[in-house]
Amino acid sequence: MPNPEALTEEMWQAILTNDASYDGQFFYAVKTTGIFCRPSCKSRPPNKKNVGYFRTSQQAVSAKFRPCKRCKPTGQRLPDDEWVALVTEYIDTNYAEALSLEILAVICHGSPYHMHRTFKRVKGITPVEYIQQVRINQAKEKLISSNKPVGEVGVDVGLSNTPYFITLFKKKTGHTPASYRQLQQHNMKEAFENGKQHEFTTLLDDNHT
Ligand SMILES: [Zn+2]
C-alpha cells in the first residue's frame, strides 16, 4: 500500500489558503482520519505532521484513503455508510480524547447537523450516544481487568469528570462503576470455584468407570 509523500512548503501554503489553483496538481491525505482532500477544501487545516500528498486521487484511493465529503476529490460523493464507518472508526480509536459532535464534524469534514442525522439514520443511534457506548464498554473492561481507581478508569475512557462518569455508567448499566466491579469479580470467583468443583466431580466419575 503506497504511503503519501511528504508535503512541500508550497503545498502546505496552498492547503492553508485553500488555493484552488493547485486543485488537480495534488491531493492531500490526512493520516489520522484516513480522508483525502483537494488543496482548496474549506475544511479546517489539519496538523501538518499528519498530512502527506498523492499526485492523483486514484493513488489516494488505492492507499485506502477515502474522499472528503466536502470537497469530493474524486468528483463523486462519499456514500453515507462509508462516511459513517469512518466516523465510527475515529471514535473507536480516539474515545479517550475529547470528543463532541462539533469536534467530530470538523475532523471528519461535515456539518454537525448533517453528521448527527446521517449517523443516526445509518446506525440507529446518534454519534454522541455511540461515543458514550464505546466509553462505557471500555470502562467495563478496565474495571474488571484492573484495580485502577474508578476516577482513573474514567480518565482512561475520556470521561475525566468523575461524578459525570459515575452517573453515566449507572444510567447505562444499572450499576455504579464500583458495584459493577465488585459484582463481576464476585461472579468470576464463583465461576472459578464452580469450575473447580466441576473438575473434581468429573474426576470422581472417571474413577467410578
Ligand atoms: Zn475536503
Automatic annotation (TrEMBL):
Keyword set, alphabetical order: Activator, DNA damage, DNA repair, DNA-binding, Metal-binding, Methyltransferase, Transcription, Transcription regulation, Transferase, Zinc
Annotated ranges, domain HTH araC/xylS-type: 85-183
Cofactor(s), names only, from the UniProt record: Zn(2+)
Pfam family, one: Ada_Zn_binding
Family matches, as PANTHER family: ARAC-FAMILY TRANSCRIPTIONAL REGULATOR (PTHR43280), HTH-TYPE TRANSCRIPTIONAL ACTIVATOR RHAS (PTHR43280:SF28)
Protein name, per record: Bifunctional transcriptional activator/DNA repair enzyme AdaA
